[in-house]
Specification:
Elements: E1 5-7, H1 9-16, H2 20-29, E2 36-39, E3 42-47, H3 49-65, H4 68-95, H5 105-132, H6 137-173, H7 181-188
Antiparallel strand pairs: 1-3, 2-3
Helix pairs in contact: 4-7, 5-6
Amino acid sequence: MAQRRWIGLQQLADEVGMAVRTLQYIRAQEPGVLVTKKKGSGLVYAQPDCAINLRTREVQRELQKLNPEELDEAKERARKIRLEADRIAIKLSRERQEVAPVIGMDAAVERLATTFRTEILGLRPKYAARFVGLSTQLQAAQLIDDMALQLLRACVEACQRLADEESAEGDAIDSDEPADDEALEEASG
């Protein structure tokens, strides 16, 4: 934001393109619009605060002039444009692989957790007999490495299955047809 500076009324009038008399009227009728402070015997005005407040005032006055139907139509057009922009942003994020699809994420996480649990529970009976006959620490370390390798392989396989399922779902979702407004509103929150 630009640094605040204090200027006189004539300079403010020149900068905002309004007459001095108009600014004096606004200061008297709408005290919150012009940010002032006393300097000597006169007032100085804060810039860019005054310019911003004057612009906001103009916009609000123009909005009041619009009839309700025009205002509703403009809001509806703006909403549709925002929805279309959101849809394009989501599609672009998918293409760049910046986001993970949320649909079915709970089921996918549950399948991965079940796979891990099954593999971990299956390790004890499979490797218990081997631990009994171990005589050196090196043999125990190799056995533990084998167990970890088995877990990692199961993890990789489960993740590959999940990726295959997601790519199949993604192909079905990535159509060039515009989505309906309700679905976009639900997805964008």
